[in-house]
């Protein structure tokens, strides 16, 4: 029997369904109902995977309202965003557009400031105020963010700083850039130790261009002619503590752009970086029409990337301005309110903010005492203590107070201080005048505006009729602001002050600095820098950074220092002065970088120690480069002479020409028509 070939049919292996899904597949159910258990099982595994990679982020905001001695008002907005993860793409509260930009260009720390106007240190003091940090009380915001590791670390710290100290007019940018991890790193700058490596210079150029596009500025004009590489400055600021051995090599670059100013185009991108933008929270008070009419206004952006082992991000956004309520009105009255300053009231709080506070400091009326009222008053604390107080101190005196064992930091008398503070707290049911006195003696009024419901319908009856600006101060809305009320309108008035009296003398700051350019002409001049230490007990350690354009060349061999100490009286003065404080050289270290024509500016850095109640003058001669319009006069111009001439009437000539041309055209046309025209019969 012949062998017959059989064609084998392909066999399809069928997998048996799981035991749990076998009954479902056996039933004639629709496809969506069959896939529903699988979808629920998949969704149940997602939260666990997200929780394993979730980063804790926090957002806090602070507003400082500080009456100045000359009748002006300082307003400082601070917005802090922190994260314990250095992720490149996953952010909940932190601005992704800013952090991805910083990561791309290998930036460990960057600071950008834009200011318009001049900060008067002699009248306004320091723009940064150190305050005691109050204990955090968790607020249930429903989002689960802002109460993690970074929040606990902030609560452990007893001091925070409000404001920004970069108040130079124009734009200022400095950054710490990390070197690329390449084998040839650092070989490019071996021939020029005063120039950054090529990879750092490339990242710096890309960083300035990216920030210029993000904040609508002209930072791309910061080229090598305005960029310096400081060695002493910008190395002792507020940085995250980390091991120097484990951190990679970095280079710090700094540049100024004095011609840049702040405007609405810069403020709008800044507000977009906030979680609630400018629609809720303290940022809703930033009205461009009012902000840019102030005597001084500025904004700053500070980004820090923490290095291992404490990885994460910290972003600080600052907006500060100085208003003059006593000058911009017909009547010299320094009464102010949120509505009169910003033309807005606080309508709603930001639900994503873990902490939102407004601090109103008491005025420092030097030379006379005037009664002031604040309306509405802050929410009455349940049982405050001295540790909860947020007394303002000078940032320069902060470290000295800790080192000297100031009574405010001494822990031995905490019980006595708490008892004294509790004794001064008004009793339950006390009048508004008693609470007004309590907050005034405390030195500041602290408003927790995380929830505005605490200020709904509250106000000081004694100050309700003191000023028209405070009439609606007690009409505070709820936490959401949907009720349509006037909102929280904090006001400070001086009911017994008919006209503001300018102080005869204002207490000078601890350290005062001035600089003048003297000499005959600009070819050879003397640059004099004067540093005055007004403190009677502590010496001031400073780092002086001088950046001069390439066409102005200081002669370092002419550098001179003069120490002028105040007259000392051992019977009157409560301090001891040593001879070496006056005779020793105040300049402890000098670092300079020579300039290159049309390529690099001149940089001079000095570490100076100024004794108490002493003035130090630093003088250096400068020579102006030839060919810069100084030193020789190339041209001389005489005065213009007036020559009177009989001018003919050209209009008559024009009319005559037009008339003659018209007659000739008509005559020529008729004559030509008579010669060339032919008449003939046409059959119709």
From TrEMBL:
Residues 131-151, 367-428, 457-484 are annotated as: Disordered. Residues 393-404 have a biased composition (Acidic residues). Residues 457-477 have a biased composition (Low complexity). InterPro entries: PIG-T. The keyword Transmembrane applies. The chain crosses the membrane at residues 652-676. It comes from the Eukaryota. It holds the Pfam family Gpi16. One of its GO terms (biological process) is attachment of GPI anchor to protein. The keyword Transmembrane helix applies. GO terms for cellular component: GPI-anchor transamidase complex. Keywords: Membrane, Transmembrane, Transmembrane helix. This is GPI transamidase component PIG-T.
